[in-house]
Write a structure and sequence with these properties.
Elements lengths: L4 H40 L9 E5 L1 H11 L3 H9 L1 H14 L2 E4 L4 E5 L4 H23 L7 H23 L5
Parallel strand pairs: 1-3
Antiparallel strand pairs: 2-3
Length: 174
């Protein structure tokens, strides 16, 4: 253990530097999150007042884990409807293609930190749409639709906002 002592100061400095770096990025992320939240609220004619959802930028593995946790009851339903093999294929497709998700129970948005900056913001906009949708559903303001149709309509609205964000807010150089 004696041979580790000279490295204590170095390890301490590295940890302090990492913490400082994380804290330095928080205000920039918070501002960006608020700007996108307000942009989505404006596009959806929603009231942006009130608390925002918690927002976490996570790696692909963590995103997949959150998806699996949220959808643990989905697989048996899919298996009963389509068979085990097809249910596995469906779940695998979602797991491989997932870029973000909104957990309405915890009011938390997860977005893939592995995305390029514009795509990350567009996916965040997409998931904020779901936050507003569930906020309305919770207040009973959306018309009752069959579950499948309601889910499709919600996803189409979120995809529309995501595409509009990319078209109007992203500046890709050719």
């Amino acid at each position: 253990m004696q041979h580790l002592r000279p490295h204590h100061n170095f390890i301490f400095l590295v940890l302090i530097s990492l913490i400082a770096l994380m804290l330095a990025n928080q205000p920039a992320n918070a501002q960006m999150e608020r700007e996108i939240f307000n942009w989505v609220a404006n596009e959806m004619a929603e009231d942006p007042s009130g608390p925002m959802p918690a927002i976490h930028f996570v790696d692909h593995q963590a995103l997949q884990l959150h998806f699996k946790t949220m959808n643990r009851r989905t697989f048996p339903i899919l298996a009963a409807r389509y068979g085990t093999v097809q249910a596995r294929n469906i779940m695998s497709l979602y797991l491989n293609e997932i870029h973000g998700l909104y957990d309405p129970n915890s009011k938390t948005i997860y977005v893939g930190s592995f995305l390029d900056p514009c795509r990350l913001k567009a996916v965040l906009a997409h998931e904020i749409v779901h936050f507003f949708q569930f906020r309305k559903i919770g207040l009973g303001l959306r018309p009752a639709l069959p579950a499948k149709l309601g889910q499709l309509a919600r996803e189409q609205e979120a995809q529309h906002i995501e595409k509009k964000y990319i078209k109007t807010e992203c500046r890709y150089s050719n």
